[in-house]
Amino acid sequence: MLNVIIFLGSPGSGKGTQAAKLSSTFDYKHISIGDMLRDNVERKTDLGLKTSEFVDSGELVPDDLIIQVVGKFFEDFSSNKDDKVILDGFPRTEPQALALEKIINDLDITLTSVIFLNVQDDEVISRLSERGREDDSPELVLNRLNVYRDQTEPLLEYYKNKNILNEIDGNRLPELVFGEISELIGVEA
Ligand code: AMP
Which of 21, 38, 84, 92 is catalytic? Predict the structure, then answer.
């Protein structure tokens, strides 16, 4: 049985940081869609060529492309029984959430937990201005926050209704957030 944890939260909420720490401390495979896309853009692969203009403008890559990539990952990976996966940055839209639900039902996968890292906008803006990734310029950050509000935030309600949403105050120091996440998923930090 493959166990999956989803990280939800705005850009700069610490999803990537926390997911990376969970995967290096415990036995989680960290799947960051953003990293995957940036890697493909860098290597100028077909996927990279198709997605770069969206990533560069802070827009979401079209659902069908992303769903295909994630679907393929799970098909290849789901035979690895007893593995644990963190999805960082997927789903980000309702069609993606529905597609994930289908994947979960079709393959032998358990959605263990959805962790929502709640961080205030001013904290996000200050964090991203220090990070300095190409899509972290002030205009793009505002655009990404709007995209998050419009397209991703509705998923909070979706998972709340399924009684699987866990909200964590992500404004605090990364170590405190990590301690709380570890406790939540039942591992010792
Ligand atoms: P992130 O590294 O999670 O901040 O994602 C960086 C960029 O990758 C986003 O601004 C989007 O352009 C793209 N991206 C990441 N995840 C998704 C997704 N699930 N659906 C569509 N686009 C995505």
Answer: 92
Indicate the top mutation candidate among 7, 59, 60, 124 to test ligand 1's pocket, ranked by most ligand atoms within 8 A of CB: 60
Count other C-beta atoms under 10 Å from residue 30's C-beta. Answer: 18
Nearest to 23 by CA among 81, 70, 90, 86: 86
For residue 89, what are its two tokens?
A: 């940055």
User: Does the pTM of the predicted model rise above 0.85?
Assistant: yes
**With 70 as the cut, is the pLDDT of residue 40 above it?**
yes
Q: How far apart are CA 105 and CA 135, in angstroms?
A: 35
Q: Establish whether 131 is a catalytic residue.
A: yes
Range 53-78 average pLDDT:
93
Q: Which of 8, 30, 39, 61 has the most ligand 1 atoms within 8 A of CB, as the residue to mutate?
A: 61
CATH topology of domain 3-184: Rossmann fold (3.40.50)
Please name which of 16, 46, 2 lies closest in space to residue 136, comparing C-alpha atoms: 16
Per-residue DSSP letters for 84-148?
EEEEES---SHHHHHHHHHHHHHTTEEEEEEEEEE--HHHHHHHHHHH--GGGSHHHHHHHHHHI
Which residues face 168 on adjacent strands?
117
